[in-house]
Amino acid sequence: MNSSKSPVLDGLGNTTCNAHKKISVFFSIIFMTVGILSNSLAIAILMKAYQRFRQKSKASFLLFASGLVVTDLFGHLINGTIAVFVYASDKDWIRFNQSNILCSVFGICMVFFGLCPLFLGSVMAVERCIGVTKPIFHSTKMTSKHVKMILTTVCLFAVFIALLPILSFRAYQIQASRTWCFYKTEHIEDWEDRFYLLLFSCLGLLALAVSFLCNAVTGITLLRVKFKSQQRQGRSHHFEMIIQLLAIMCVSCICWSPFLVTMANIGINEDRSMETCETILVVLRMATWNQILDPWVYILLRKAVLKTLYKIARRCCGMHIMNLHMWELSSIKNSLKVAAISESPVSSKQINQQPLSSTGQ
Questions:
Q1: Which residue has the higher pLDDT, 313 or 70?
Q2: Which residues pair with 182 in a beta bridge?
Q3: Which of these, 142, 84, 71, 139, lies nearest to 111 by C-alpha position?
Q4: What is the rounded CA–CA span in Å between residue 291 and residue 39?
Q5: Cβ-count burial of 328 within 10 angstroms (0-12 exposed, 13-18 middle, 19+ buried)?
Q6: Beta pairing partners, 181
Q7: Which of 63, 89, 146, 163 has the most beta carbons within 10 angstroms of its beta carbon?
Q8: CA–CA dist 283, 77 (Å, integer)
Q9: Maximum pairwise Cα distance, the chain
Q10: Higher pLDDT, 119 or 240
């Protein structure tokens, strides 16, 4: 680090992506602004809902969702500010990053705000799966204290993963586009450089796989309860919940999978060309869109909004899909009530005793 040329800056003159400065600054500012505004709106909606359902089973879901949206908000605020500063400084890292402090902070934030939302998404999927399949266990064990402990553990684990290169004296590297910092993705020297890329990719893909599996189990369980139950009041929640699960799952997989697969490919093949450099910028922006679209899933796919969309679709299509009185009861309370009734041994005994009482009469 005391030499005339820092090792972190070695590759800046060799390989760069051809990115127009004005367009790049414009995209960075737009992404950051839209992300901050959408996440701020989602936080306000979730906090208002949390005040209504503080003592109910929906509170744990709202706490996890609030943690996810707050993480996305700070991710846009911190990473977006650094990115805009880099573009505004004409990407002259040699001038403002002599001690590699800014690149290290940028790299840590990229890893933390990349993995933490994925971890929180998988934890939310597990929580929803337990809440639907085991509602009694969920209502007794999943308290707000436990939720806050889980949120803290997830954040600390993401911080640990982000600090691993610093703890092992491996600096984060300025990427070929000279616009962001991450693990070393070119001129990979040993197994440790490859290990960080594969660790990040595997953890991200594992989180997506857990989310997919738990959401699938939740959706199947809700459908089974819907078709088995004779009560029409639970259908609104089934309809709403399945749409939310599909939206969250699709957004996460579409936005994050290309970036995670690209990083894993680089870690395995140790090869990157000019075309791959441009591809990394595209998949990185796709991953950024996940933090923009996440809050809109909670903003748009609510019961009131779905009722409006249903009315519009019914007017346009002229089809009788379902009656609007199915939307009357609270969705989360409805689902847990139906699931609890279907699993409760007391209800099954009452059902079995009904024919006996009728024959005795």
A1: 70
A2: 173
A3: 71
A4: 8
A5: exposed
A6: 174
A7: 63
A8: 20
A9: 99
A10: 119
